[in-house]
Specification:
- It contains 13 helices and 18 strands.
- It has 430 residues and is of the alpha/beta class.
- It is globular.
- One of its GO terms (molecular function) is isoguanine deaminase activity.
- It comes from Jannaschia faecimaris.
Length: 430
């Protein structure tokens, strides 16, 4: 007897006609044509059952604050930071919590069940930290929220950041963050990477740094991050986010840099939506778009996870909370258009990001948590193309969100009476 049984489903690895039996909060059986008694049975009708989407890079303290105190007119990273600096002193804990919870509702509806959010610690009041620690507890039954102590104004550049970051970690923030390219000098940036890695090593924590989020090809703090990762024995616990300067770096230098990142067992977290929108603002034509070298990182054996970064805040006026939007843009921007490529980018918003965050018992295997998303698509490549409805979002064996299938009714002589977008994949492409 199962509590929940999903039958006639397709899995991301290509298996079809699969059944998944759930008892309590765990997957207890998977098999072809699996049947059995259950309190509830979901007939997936051949649609894709996926592990949850995982967002490894977000800013939940700023989300849904678009227009406060005003709009970003230049569209640049620096004006966004300046706007956030104006808004930050006016923030209240209640307002941050309200916006964050609304965003979590949206993310969950899209099948996102884990988010790593950077939390600004540049304001010594730590209002953002208090708010998101409370949010973490509220959403815990539905979504795993991992928090990064992030000195937005620079670890050394902001006079209060050193002490505030340590207090944030003492309060229960999970990960050490940084922004070395925003320090006053390259040397100060290098020193900040060393100091922050030392803190992480001393406390046994993970590291996730905004690194080289610039068009400057000489911004090379990722090299320092890799070096300090090895020095402090942090292999497998460090991620470099954005890495946009790599887009503009000399290819010979990159040919030396990628093996160093791989040796350090670092992960890379590009954020395609934001990187393409913000970078290259000072260019005329040819115009750089700033997205880091995703195919080359993958080819070097480096784990790549794709992040949403921002949704309707001072840096980015768009965003839906849907990580398939992120993967969809990445396909175009990287020209990774083959079926294999699209499957690789699907992993970047699911299993890879789960590994970066260190999620336990994640995936569609017996013994894992019964966390999964049923999509109105037949396989991962089609899911990226369609960004389809999430028919069911299941967390710990319970359905927490449902969306009706997208079906268009047609009234045309000699044509079908209805249309399902998932029925258009040409045969032989799966």
């Amino acid at each position: 007897m199962f509590d929940l049984l999903v039958v006639n489903t397709s899995l991301p690895d290509g298996r079809t006609d699969q059944g998944i039996g759930i008892r309590g909060d765990r997957i207890v059986e998977i098999g072809t044509g699996l049947q059995g008694e259950a309190e509830r049975v979901i007939d997936a009708e051949g649609y894709l059952l996926s592990p949850p989407f995982v967002d490894p890079h977000f800013h939940m303290d700023a989300t849904l604050s678009l227009g406060l105190p005003r709009m970003n007119q230049s569209g640049t990273l620096l004006e966004g930071i300046a706007l956030w600096g104006e808004l930050r002193p006016t923030l209240t804990k209640e307002a941050v919590i309200e916006r964050a919870l609304r965003y979590c509702d949206l993310a969950i509806s899209k099948g996102v069940m884990a988010v790593r959010s950077h939390v600004d610690v540049s304001d010594p009041r730590l209002v953002t930290v208090e708010a998101l620690l409370e949010v973490r507890e509220i959403v815990a039954p539905y979504l795993e929220l991992q928090l990064v102590a992030f000195p937005q104004d620079g670890y050394y550049r902001c006079p209060e950041a050193e002490e505030a970051l340590k207090r944030a970690l003492d309060m229960g923030v999970d990960v050490v963050g940084g922004i070395p390219h925003f320090e006053r000098t390259m040397d100060a940036g290098r020193a900040s990477v060393e100091a922050l890695c030392r803190i992480a090593a001393d406390r046994g924590l993970r590291v996730d740094m905004h690194c080289d989020e610039t068009d400057d090809p000489l911004s090379r703090h990722v090299e320092t991050l890799a070096e300090q990762t090895i020095r402090f024995g942090l292999q497998g616990r460090v991620a470099g986010s954005h890495l946009t300067s790599m887009h503009s770096m000399d290819s010979y230098y990159v040919s030396k840099l990628l093996p160093l990142i791989a040796e350090a067992k670092m992960a890379a977290i590009p954020n395609p939506l934001i990187n393409i929108m913000i970078q290259g603002r000072h260019d005329t034509y040819p115009k750089r778009r700033g997205l880091t070298r995703i195919p080359e990182l993958i080819a070097a054996g480096i784990i790549v996870g794709l992040g949403q970064d921002c949704v309707m805040d001072p840096w980015y006026s768009m965003g839906t909370g849907d990580l398939l939007d992120v993967a969809h843009l990445a396909v175009h921007a990287t020209q990774m258009g083959s079926q294999v490529d699209k499957r690789t980018l699907y992993d970047a918003v699911t299993v890879n990001s789960a590994q970066i965050m260190g999620l336990k018992d994640y995936g569609l295997k017996v013994g894992c948590y019964a966390d999964m998303v049923l999509l109105q698509a037949r396989d991962p490549a089609e899911a990226i193309r369609l960004r389809p409805n999430r028919l069911a979002v299941i967390r710990r064996g319970k359905i927490i969100a449902e969306t009706a299938p997208e079906v268009t009714r047609l009234s045309m002589d000699g044509r079908p009476s209805s249309l399902d977008p998932a029925d258009y994949m040409p045969k032989g492409t799966s």
